[in-house]
Write a sequence for this structure.
């Protein structure tokens, strides 16, 4: 899993049918200090994350396919947690 | 999934038979601002993306193999959505 | 597996249920000399690693899912060893 | 899949038995413009690629294991296409 | 697979039981010219690689789990070949 910050939505009218009805969120991986680290990922979001919120994202394709309920889905990254605002380091 | 921009086609007469008949698209992952991020990927394209179009690509090998209908296919990256031109951030 | 240094905890009240009860540790991959290398990962921790401790982390989703006892879990990275303080190079 | 350029062979007398008889090719991922991008990969080569030739490589371990005919093989990257010299962008 | 150079051992008294009895080797991926490329990986070593030796490493978790004989093992990277000293480019 990666710590990431929500950068916005991606809308795609034409897409794999398993992605219909899911919010697609552009997530920038970050360090503990909030510095961008590596390539932004587009994740499905079952949690309703807000813009600029810190989230946990996972690249586990098996779990993402189970979440969308479609074994043929290309979904791979998923928001799996919303980071609490005041966390102890 | 990654947000990416179509950079062109790749043509390979000699290739794995499961790739015959598929367009092979060179996709540059980008940030929300359109900046290149990380290594370009060659993806199969069931959607007919145009040059310089923004797309969503997925690295899910299982879904790609199901798309080409060949469990022995080395296909792994696939274009899974065409990003709408005017998206809300 | 990667050699990494513990950078802190991540707390997320709202998260995938399979992650409940697990410590989520932000781990910075490092070189033999301790230099940061690549993107920090959030790993589950069955070993009780301390802050700034050097650890081994693995990205094996299958093993992580077995550790949490939930085949639908998005857990993927796990702390799989605590590095001894005085190691022979 | 990645677009890559052949950088040379790697010879290893002592290796996993499933790799016996396969050419092991060091492949540098490149952009459309031929610029090196990311980490060089060692791939098995069923196509007979030449030095400095542009190729497509795939990281699909399942397909590579099927190619070598050994489910226990650690082979993961494979050359899956030879890029035509004069391609349309 | 990656071409890599052995940078040293990692010793971890407390670790996943499937790793007991295995040498854990810190491997720096390198280019054909020997330049470091990307993040160092900790690999299990069934071949007895020496310090600074060039090796082939694979990230295939399935093969690594079969090597250690434990389907629940988090082992993922493995040394799968020792590169010959005088190789033809």
């Amino acid at each position: 899993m990666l710590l990431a910050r929500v950068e916005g939505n991606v809308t795609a009218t034409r897409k794999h049918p398993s992605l219909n009805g899911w919010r697609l969120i552009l997530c920038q991986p970050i360090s503990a200090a909030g510095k961008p680290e590596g390539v932004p990922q587009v994740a499905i979001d079952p949690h309703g994350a807000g813009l600029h919120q810190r989230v946990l994202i996972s690249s586990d394709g098996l779990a993402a396919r189970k979440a969308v309920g479609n074994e043929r889905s290309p979904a791979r990254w998923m928001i799996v947690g919303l980071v609490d605002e005041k966390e102890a380091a």
